[in-house]
Amino acid sequence: MTGVILSTEFELTEAAAELARREQVFAKVLPDLSPLPLRRVPDGFLALRDSIIGQQVSVASARAIRARMDAAGLAHEETVAAADEDALRGCGLSRQKIRYLTALARARLDYAALRAMPNEQVSATLIALPGVGRWTAEMYLMFALGRADVFAPDDLALAEAARLLFALPDRPRPRAFAAMAEPWAPWRAVAARILWAYYAQIKRREGVG
What we know:
Elements: H1 9-22, H2 24-33, H3 45-53, H4 59-71, H5 77-82, H6 85-89, H7 95-107, H8 111-116, H9 119-127, H10 134-144, H11 156-165, H12 174-181, H13 188-205
């Protein structure tokens, strides 16, 4: 079972309202955060390519690398799989990310089949690839596949948002954070969007970002 798929802003708004009825802390902040961004992207190779590019670099750097790859015609599995290392390095990729992206392109994943797999099977398939960890798999499930009941307990922004919003003494550690999110099922990806939006709001008030 794939669970509920969030495909539209309306579906996200309805799910957020339902979650807020169950979690009063979300209910207090949701009016100031609405409309929540859906942030859906097309599933497939590019979604994973861009996630790998964005690992451990700034948003601006990731955007520049993506633009150079697109300009060089490196937006498809076939072209990335066939590209030599110099061409990929010329786009600003590190040696490690060249290895990751080449492995992804040559894996020839059946992206259509991923759509029908349960979350755990999608994660296992993706994590088997070099450079794809649990966080990257969770982002793919949330934003490329639109799964409504996925969470990312390792995400620092989510943890910091939860600390602030729920007045916790410290950022929750991943295992405790995952347990904290369990009552938010089957809308954990909606809870994540609320927490990310809250975090962005706090940073804007602080003049960051």
